[in-house]
Amino acid sequence: MPASTSPNAKRPAEAPVINEEADRILGRIILRYGGVTFAQLFLMTFAMAPINMKGSPVFKWHQAIDVLSILLVFIPFLLGISKLFAARLRIGRDLVERGVWRQAIAALDPFEGFTQRFLDGSGEAHYLLSKAYAGAGEKAKAERARQFVLKHRAGVWADKLRDPAPIAIGALKTALRQEKSAEKTVTGVKGKRKRRF
Question: Which domain of life is it from (predicted)?
């Protein structure tokens, strides 16, 4: 494969892009939950106007109804965000496993946002980001993601990063290839690998 078409090839002055299939999956989630949220906001605009007018039969309850309407809008919005980031984590995990570093970074990078870090409760996304950045040769960013896990997400992912003798990326790729060839030998099945997303 020519270097210019490699999935890990850097494109100057451009953010990395996830592959088209991953973009479709994420796009469907955004359309589904974003569409519901937009429709609710549109309907609430018309439904809440008469409720908040003085003299309406339900005006005395307008504050409680306003709070309830806000909750009704935010529930699908927050659910959509949760689904979107869960899909990003799944996609990123698969891409790191396959060693497609730039696409993995594009999938997992939103977890780096200051307001999105809480969505990485276990630290797995930052663990995967540290691996992807290291694989892409961005040592400073890899170390920043690693330090976030070590300082703020105690648990299995932090323990994996604390290992005094981390496995080199090349050795990890070799181990994965050997494991896959062993699986093929055991099952006797050859052919294309099924896509996960």
Answer: Bacteria
